[in-house]
Amino acid sequence: MTYPIKGEHLYKRFKKQVVLDDVSLTLNEGEIYGLIGPSGSGKTTLVKILLGLEKADSGTVELFEQKPTLYAFRSLGYMAQSDALYHELTAYQNLSFFAAIQGLRGRKKKQRILEVAESVGLENDLKKNVAQFSGGMRRRLSLASALVHEPRLYLLDEPTVGLDPLIRRNIWTLFHYLKEKGATIIVTTHVMDEVSRCDRVGLLSGGHMIAEGSPKELTEAFHVSSVEDIFLVKGGERQ
Q1: Which helix (DSSP H) or strand (DSSP E) does residue 24 occupy?
Q2: Tens digits of per-residue pLDDT, 185-228?
Q3: What is the crossing angle of helices 228-238 and 215-222, to 10°?
Q4: Same domain flag for 57 and 118
């Protein structure tokens, strides 16, 4: 089995605050991994380090079992917490730009734009300027931008925040479809009802990976009814 991404013994400090303290994370090929934790737990910092957008003070990162290279990064799809979109452009123009920088051209590019727009429910909004979009529509367009080049690995930072329940459910159906096609997905979230939709989850708290495993394994190991309760158990242990 190959490992699409692996981070080992990652440590990160901002000024006097330790954000990540000896965190290790390995994704298996073809799984959905949920990175769970409250705001400020270190989720976004960890994702940025895995992507190479942030440098760890110590530790190592491998993409597809090698040191990160530009070629390897072409196999990534990244969706940030804040939408990196061009509001003065239409949705189509945004997707065209992101597709082009990933090497898509001509008929293939147009086909992928239409496919991903439909997959996130924006097929009827491609001619609209992004400035006209609601927050939820911008989140969906950001997700489409991460999907457009059909990467092998997706790193999605709170992709469903601000979306209504029906759209969220459709997005998760899409994630499982991508998984069935062989993609690996890491999703950060603090929405606990999404945990059961992940194959494995890692629980981050205060910069520490406090538990990791399938949702069923974790609830059985800690004798709790939900993964969320593990934060209460581990929090009590630290006091």
Answers
A1: strand 17-27
A2: 999 987 778 899 999 999 999 899 999 999 999 999 999 998 98
A3: 40
A4: no
Q: What pLDDT does 239 receive?
A: 39
Instruction: Give the residue from 18, 45, 68 where a domain finishes.
Output: 68
Contact 19, 45 (CB under 8 A): yes
- Confidence at residue 72, expressed as pLDDT on a 0 to 100 scale: 65
Decide which of 68, 100, 122 is a domain's last residue. 68
- What are the residues facing 62 on neighbouring strands? 6
The answer on 91 and 58 residing in a single domain is no
**Could you tell me if 160 and 57 lie in one domain?**
no
Rounded CA-CA distance 98/29 in Å is: 25
Distance CA 163, CA 168 (A): 6
Domain with 184, as residue range(s), is: 74-199
- Based on the domain organization, do 58 and 85 belong to the same domain? no
Q: Residue 85 CB: number of other CB atoms within 10 A?
A: 20
> How distant, in Å, are the alpha carbons of 75, 85, 127, 239 from that of 113?
18, 15, 12, 51
Tokens 């457009």 identify what position?
148
Model confidence over 16-65: pLDDT tens digits? Answer: 899 999 999 999 999 999 999 888 889 989 988 988 888 999 999 998 88
- Overall average pLDDT of the 81-110 stretch: 93
Whole-number Cα distances in Å, 14 to 37, 46, 107, 188, 203:
19, 13, 46, 21, 21
- The answer on 100 and 63 residing in a single domain is no
